Amino acid sequence: MYLNCHSFYSLRYGTIPLQELVEQAAQFGVKSMALTDINTVTGIYDFTKACEVLKIKPLVGVDFHNSSKQLYVGLAKNNEGIAEMNRVLTRHNFEDKMLPIQAPDFENTFIIYPFDNVPDQLRENEFIGITADQLSKLYNPVWKNRINKMVVLQSVTYRTKEEFNLHKILRAIDLNIIGTKLTEEDYCKVSEVMLPLENLAAKFIDYPVIIENTKKIIGQCNFHYDFNTPKNKKHYTANKQEDIALLTKLAYEGMIRRYGNGNNEALQRVEKELRVIDELEFSGYFLITWDIVQYSISQGFLHIGRGSGANSIIAYCLDITDICPLELDLYFERFLNLNRKTPPDFDIDWSWRERDIILEYIFTKYGADHVAFCGTNVEFKYRSIFREVGKVFGLPKEELDELAKNPMKQHHKNKVVKMVQYYGMMLEKYPNQRSMHSCGIIISEKPITNYSALEMPPKGFPIVQFDMHVAEEIGFDKFDILSQRGIGHIDDAVKLIKKNQSIEVNIRDTSISKDEVECNRFLSLGKTIGCFYIESPAMRGLLRRLNCDNYKVLVAASSIIRPGVAQSGMMKEYIFRHNHPDRFEYFHEVFKEQLGETYGIMVYQEDVIKIALHYGGLPAADGDILRRAMSGKGRSKEALQKVKDNFFASCAQKGHPLSLSEEIYRQIESFAGYSFCKAHSASYAVESYQSLYLKVHYPIEFMTAVINNFGGFYRTEVYVHEARMSGAKIHNPCVNKSDVQTNVSGRNIYLGFQHLKSLESKTAEWIVMERDTNGPYQSLEDFINRVPIGIEGIQTLIFINAFRFTGKQKNELLIIARLILINFKPENRNPLLLQEPVKEYKLPVLERSPFEDAFDEIELLDFPVSVTPFNLLKTSFRGDVMAKELTKHHKKMVRMLAYLISRKHVPTKRGDMYFGTWIDAEGEFFDTAHFADSLRDYPFKSGGCYLLLGKVEVDYHFPTITISKMAKMPFIADPRYSATDERRFHTQQQIREDVSMTHREPYPQEHEYNMPRHRMAQ
After folding, report:
1. Computed from CA positions of residues 985, 989, 990, 992, in that sequence, does the dihedral angle turn out positive or negative?
2. Which end of the chain is more exposed for a tag (fewer CB within 10 A), N or C?
């Protein structure tokens, strides 16, 4: 009887979560119902499953709308009916046109028109929907004569009065208006609620033909979906046999290239994996991935294969990954095994600049009708909720900002704010808008519109209307095509090295960048600024604590820093055992056998599975649930709860002491959703080493590449500083030397025009293009004649000293520029056959402070280039101790003068604290800890230089200063302004700092987790 039900996937319209919609229907005795969300099929697969559990017949379809106007409801007779509607919606989405007022001529879809949009003639599959409120209209002969084509149309959109109000709020958000501006046409009817089935039937008791028509439609709608068969493109070649033959050939060729002839261990592993891949019919997936990678290699692109796919030697032999699973004892079953219920996927990274080229290849090669990104439903989040709901209630921007920035307990207590809070909290976790999954692509055997309508986001690649979890459930193995800045660092550095030094670095040869002596020294000292994944203060501190000087320890470090390991206390315990391998016992023999390499500490996801299987005796199926939970694919801790009872029952049966089992399960639980598999850590470690190799041996080119790719842990200023510390001479942008991006010539780095905040990108591009075409600029006049630029752009370039080749002072250049541009006509901007001689202006020589340039640089770049921040201080004091000496001052109080780089907020049970990262006057990095009591009296006051007083604590080779007092040190007055001008101290306020916030529960202290270091009773 319910042929038009909306869930909250009717974005900014429906208010009922999908599962709760089905549960309400079951409570009201409903035996069949239709999910017809507005212009989407997002929820039909979860809906189908939920209905089957509760013995309800699921009907699926679409409620077609143009904005707030309902046109008609489509119900699929079968699977082809959904495909028909998907094709119509896809065309509507791609062409951005209104849907037709009358439904297309569907063959496998029933159409139900609402009373206010009934065409004069109805096709055989078309009906008129009538609500109980509209039955009185049947006394009109016009409608009475059409009763034989009518069905019950009791729409469902909300459940309660509060949800009706919430519905109206959603409509106002969607229309971007305040609530009082809504009209009745903008929101649903008050009657759009679900009633007990007998109540609804009673309303139509006098019209049995309408009830009969409704039942007939229900009876003829039979959407059945096979959730168990793969929907991906089945074969790379013509069939399964040719696929496995090609994969076998490629695997053996790659094995010989990777391992040489006669490596029996590699041969046995290849043969074993081929058998499993063939049995699971996964050859096509491997070959499509291989094809994508081969195209990338042919284009000269660098890629990184990571994730659990690196457990496969076949992936290694096919160049999908660069991780040798034999070297790291990675077992294939973590990626693919006969017990695994869900298929895996490869995660492959490209440079952010090259990813779109790879995507274009995939869409072209495998067909636009068969390729799409997974969608994702962006939920209403805390800050956006209060901003959006507050706008509906008419709050001004200032109040919206306060609501968004502050926790609820700090909000005002007036009536309107309470309403915003009440309805805002109802909206939490509701889907707000559809977006594109960051990397997941599906390639289907049949047209992808068989399964979903497609949408076209601004990125230009189509997306399906369901997310990656649904994609997996309905039979799609996605391909994760990712991008990251770290690969851009490596790729660009290699190109710069070739250009600047004529040296070809084969960075794909991981043997040159793994366990290299000088790299290991840098690694152990934490000298890794700019290097992917190992440059953050926390990671550099960890490397120093571990004295990490080899590849395998780096692999472990990449995983133990993850929240799951750190939260459980296992990171601290690993550090202790690594530094004191003779001061602990394995507290059970299984831990020595299975986790000897990591001192009995569970570091990787595989370790958790090993312990669950070998200590707990859990079956392989429970191991797979653990894997999914740790990968964030199995509802995280909720999924772990499913195996908890089995674990303790099995442990008791095996005779393990309860205290030991409880401690082990505490560690297992902490891994939920926050840990790496070993292959993933290894992939990160390889890329980190590649970055480090380039930084160690080609630091100037490498740091230039880091500057150009942005997106590192730190701001550009830090990487410029690191380049200078590596021996580079840093130059401000110059119209004759600089490009849009930063470039390098010998040991000279010329900052790119892109770093000038007030210079338009088009102007920067024109400067370079004109110079490359017609030669260097001869003078300021020549530049103005050749480049279309206004006085603001000219001033920016003058202030950054981009015309220093002229030998003229900035003030002189400014006067010349203004004199030229007063009467300058753009139409005269063209190459002259005989260039007129440059007019010489006699101007007075003005005295300039040597620090004026530094303040210009801060204003235009956010940081000084010509001097360091320390040169701008009023004080000449530079501290009693330098960073390089800190390890000699353990437990001593020290005074240091330092420049703030970054600070990280960390919650503790005693209150909020921060970790600070600084550089001293010699340019060396060091770290500080600021606890709540210190911060109360001595808080951070934005970027700049501080005088620090604190006690040095050396923790396993890594010194940190626990700050007791600090004070921000004043800069000199800006010499560009007069002694009475208030702006003298304005520019220095632009000095930046990097602040990162942490929103998690405090990590336990060592005495709280109390991880045993002795053998426990067996």
Report:
1. positive
2. C
Contact present, 566 and 541 (Cβ < 8 Å): no
Burial class (CB within 10 angstroms; exposed 0-12, middle 13-18, buried 19+) of 254? buried
Show the tokens assigned to 919. 């550089």
- CA–CA distance, 632 with 627 (Å, rounded to integer): 9
CB 34 within 8 A of CB 5: yes
Strand partners, 915: 904, 929
Walk me through the domains of the chain, giving residue ranges and CATH numbers. 4-220 (3.20.20.140), 240-366 (no CATH), 371-476 (no CATH), 727-861 (no CATH), 869-997 (2.40.50.140)
Instruction: Say if residues 931 and 952 touch (Cβ distance below 8 Å).
Output: no
Question: How far is it, in rounded angstroms, from Cα 733 to Cα 751?
Answer: 5
Using a 10 angstrom Cβ sphere, with 0-12 exposed, 13-18 middle and 19 or more buried, the burial of residue 16 is: buried
Q: Measured at the alpha carbon of residue 369, what is the angle toward residues 367 and 372, in degrees to the nearest 5?
A: 90
Residue among 676, 675, 611, 674 at smallest CA distance from 643: 611
409-459 pLDDT, tens per residue? 778 888 999 999 999 999 988 999 988 877 889 999 999 999 999 999 877
Q: By C-alpha distance, which of 464, 413, 463 is closest to 82?
A: 464
Instruction: State CA 804 to chain mean position distance.
Output: 42
Q: Which long-range contacts (CB under 8 A, 24 or more apart) does 864-871 make?
A: 865/720, 865/730, 865/731, 865/732, 865/751, 866/732, 868/899, 868/921, 868/923, 869/899, 869/944, 869/945, 869/971, 869/991, 870/897, 870/899, 870/921, 870/945
Cβ neighbours for 868, distance < 8 A, ≥ 6 positions apart? 899, 921, 923
Sheet of 69-76, strand order: 150-152, 126-130, 109-113, 69-76, 57-66, 32-35, 2-5, 155-156
What order of strands is seen across the sheet that includes strand 463-464?
A: 303-306, 347-351, 479-484, 431-443, 371-379, 463-464, 454-455
Q: Does residue 61 carry a pLDDT above 90?
A: yes
**205's tokens:** 């008791």
Question: What is the band of 831 on the pLDDT scale with cuts at 50, 70, 90?
Answer: low
pTM over 0.90: no
Pairwise CA distance, residues 683 & 312, whole Å: 12
The string of pLDDT tens digits covering residues 802-829 is 999 999 999 889 988 998 888 766 655 5
Furthest-apart CA atoms within the chain: distance in Å: 102
Q: Which of 288, 413, 303 is nearest to 345 (CA)?
A: 288
Three-state helix/strand/coil letters over 749-779: EECCHHHCCCCCHHHHHHHHHHHHHHCCCCC
Burial pattern 475-486, b for ≥16 Cβ within 10 A else e, equals bbbbbbbbbbbb
φ, ψ of residue 831 to 5 degrees: the values are -65, 130
b/e map of 753-780 (b: 16 or more CB within 10 Å)? bbbbeebeeebbeebbebbeeeeebebb
Residue 301 one-letter amino acid: F
CA distance 789 to 806: 19
